[in-house]
User: Fold these one by one.
Assistant:
Number 1:
Amino acid sequence: MKTHFAALAATCLALSATFAMAADKPTDPQIAHIAYSAGVIDVEAAELALSKTKTPDVVAFAQSMQKDHEAVNDMALALVKKLNVIPEDNATSQALAKAAEERRTELGKLDGAAFDKAYIDNEVAYHRQVNGALETLLIPSAQNAELKSLLETGLKLFQGHQQHAEHVAAGLK
Amino acid sequence: MTPDLLSRRQLLMTGAAVLAGGASARAHNGKVHVMIENLGFQPADIDVKAGETIEWINRDPFAHTATVKGGWEVLIPPGKSATHVATADDTVGYYCRFHPNMTGRIKVVA
């Protein structure tokens, strides 16, 4: 358990550092890539959860993450196509993917109640970090009005996810 | 007052009533409609009579619920609508279980 908390703390630190690195205002193609990558990461985490847990509240949460993040990423793909923007890979997206891979490895070693708790705690922390980045960096940096608007919808959605995760976490205790 | 002025005044008053809310949620078929758009219930506060049907119309690509803590729950799939028939004790606050930052309120009136 101790190692898990250490891993979670490390992940949070890595994420903070990830977004801090991007302090020099990302461009719209970079923002699109970061937002899309953040969604893909959460879909993959949900798929892992669905393969490991049978707890009804955790299953319902993971299914909701999978569907919502896929839906918002479909919206993002439609928008970049319409705007003729090609999402641009960048250091933030790469660091996000690396941190997520490490987190998935840690989660993959757990089962049962330990997995449920670690997954949900990670989801609370992850959504908090992404929401912070959306509020302070990605939304203020976005130049295109439609991209900004989609990010704002994303923020509302992910704030909802964070609260949902907090409710599930409270129920697991 | 000319008929023209009268109709203009009526139009303005109707507009004011719509802006004031309440009236806009009530449709011709007797149902009270709540739109779900961009992660919000519109209008968030509704007045209903016991026995009236509340219909949530989900225009989001996300599944939502209208959930009363310790009470009933209506699942509203993306792009679909769902209903609940109000009972006398339905003066309640409700939220979306998937996105608890979405909240609404129902008041049962005589």
Number 2:
Amino acid sequence: MSSEIAIIGMSGRFPESPNVEKFWDNLINSRDLIKEVPKDRWDWKNCFGDPKKNENKTDSKWGGFLDDVKSFDADFFRISPREADKMDPQQRIIMEEVWKTIEDAGYKPSFLSGTKTGVFIGASNNDYIELLQKEGVHQDAYVSSGSHLCMISNRVSYFLNLNGPSLVVDTACSASLVAVHQAVCAIQNKECTMAIAGGVNLCLIPRKYFSLSHAGMLSPDGRCKTFDKKANGFVKAEGAGIILLKPLKKAIEDGDHIYGIIRGTALNHNGFGGFEHSLTASNSEAQAQLLISAYEDANLSPDTITFIEAHGTATALGDPFEIAGLKKAFKTLYNKWNLPEPKTPHCAIGSVKSNIGHTEPAAGITGLIKILLAMKHKKIPANLHINELNPRIRLDKTPFYIVKELEEWKQLIDEKGIPIPRRAGVSSFGFGGANAHVVIEEYENKQEHIDNNKQYIIVLSAKNEEILKIYAKNMVDFLEKNKDNILLSNIAYTLQIGRESMSKRLAFVAHSINDLIIKLNHYCNGKYNSELYDDEIVNLWLSGEEVNWDLLYTDSNPKRIPLPTYPFEKKKYWYDSSIKKTIIQPQIKLKTLKTKNSP
Amino acid sequence: MNIIEILKQGICNINVVIEKEHIQENEGLLASGILDSYGFVEFLGFIESEFGITVEDDEFTAANFRDLTAMKKYIEAKLGNKK
């Protein structure tokens, strides 16, 4: 790889996991997050049946679903309710997740305004427009901008005033990992200085279930039994994930918090060499070549890779093909590096699909975020539903083993006794034959300084008091869990320079993290009085002025750290209401006007 | 030994609704829907036990398993090597 790329921010939402912390909690507790199709999507009973015998029937009533796809903070993004109603919720979710990702990196989103930041999003399903058409919703101008897939990234670039490339990638199930590859290349080619990359998927209509279950690709029992003998297909799932990228050198210079380093990436296509010459069939040979390219790009010894997040779609043939490709690639790489055959397996294989199902175009970013979380917590989550390994998967004399229980992710030690950073790869294969692989390495963030001062100014703001209270409460929850591992100076600094100042403001001086928790709790319980914390700078900021916070840190060097991000207001925007608003309301208004003006 | 007949019988043991005469020798078993992914793995197990061979990862290719004709050729070669 010509230059290494750092991942400095991440955010995402997955089934029953409104944020990445909850996602990790679900993974380490081996939760299966698949459930019956919720009523607010469609009534599964209306289309349940044998797909081979009946049109428009599916034998799957299962999926991994986000808790809430109808809510959006339209006001926050300066979007009118009429427009929000017509917007693909995938656009809305990505806008919120991008904002959260930038804040997670400790930057104000406005800091990126006018920069050559690129936006690369993987998406391929467009269920919302089908719903609008089916329901006969008025096709106004908002439907075009609201439904075109390219708008998922273009709207982000527009709202944040970003001037780098802005595009949506559709290679089906590999889309978000292809987007990450393109983002990495765009930074390396100097097309952009930073990049936002990720993917999104929602399941709002049953139509796609019909053809997938007709082809036998969906598990009728709703369990994604990747690598198991009884694997009988995947389960469709929703999800969205975003990461923020910049050159590693620059990230270190800027003192950013780094989640991991992208060491290598590769893309390829199966050609027509797939099994049975079918467009949708797996091709272990092409997959092997893909992995060889990715690890050659990374220039890393293959025996230092200790975790592979597999595509693992849980089909009885697809899984063994993937493992065969993996084996072949590593055999070649071992030979190239003149390494002896591994005596004991040391590389774990996992697939998050066994927990949440297949987030399709968002699958690659889902796996990548799982790796970043695993690196952060130094643990590898278990694969679920493995009772008996698929008999076609043979792992003897290979570096690989399948993770069946949550395990510590141990660091390897080199011959000089120096620890080797944890390294992992993630695979994503599109059903049209477009494949992607990304190699990630952990990064140890050094906490060099200690708190020099006895007190720090804490600021927090939101669009209104209700949201500010939620924000303060989230901050308390976060601090309670993490107070032993973070510095008050970093918290203060990140909130001062890494969050937009909004109209409803809270500020005070805190002497310790415990003091900060007490004061935030006071605010949440209505006991906060700014007069109690009389301080010139606090008062200045509370009065609505901007403060040059850097002047406070001339003798110290605090860092941006991941802290809770803005809690968006949850207001429902959906096409039902748009029908009433666009067609019925204006008529009522006209009538009223007429009556009032009539003599 | 009529390899094609044995293979057809193996398929009928797995897919109990298909008739032997409806299985064509030059048709893909997955593409035609005669076997699904799960059934194909079972069929591989049948081939291995019936002919006493092991299908290695790198032999499980389109060239060897495209259709019954390709499989017959592959099995004959494996059996020939065994002798």
